[in-house]
Amino acid sequence: NRRAGLSILENIIENAKLNNGEVILCFIDLNNLKYTNDNFGHEKEDDMIKTFSKTVESCLRDKDIFFRFGGDEFIIIFKNSSIEITENIWLRITEAFDEINNLNKKEYLLSASHGVCKYDREKYSTIEEFIKCADAKMYEEKRRLKEIREKLN
Question: Could you say which DSSP state residue 125 is in?
Fold first, then answer.
């Protein structure tokens, strides 16, 4: 849950400060969760969250931490990682979403937007600032995707 996830993040950052470790944060927004609930009901919304969570977890390494931040927002903490490794893992996740969408014929399409930030002790004085960075990058991705969709229509 959120409280436990934030506590873990705080501990990981403190450990990284002591050991010059790398911490990458991936902020995720599960797309169309409200639409799924409004149009197909709570059962399908729950199924969407469970399918999403299981899919993400199946693509992560043992040392990665995944938790629900709230509503349709999730966080992955990548310890001793890089942006490149994180983006490769994200690519695996989106490929798994595509596979589920092509095979399962659910009422909803499984997709998510993400934003990634690397922890910098000089840049972020609080965990909230670190999370806001990744959140802002996620919204940049959402805006880019919206612009692309609008151009295609």
Answer: S
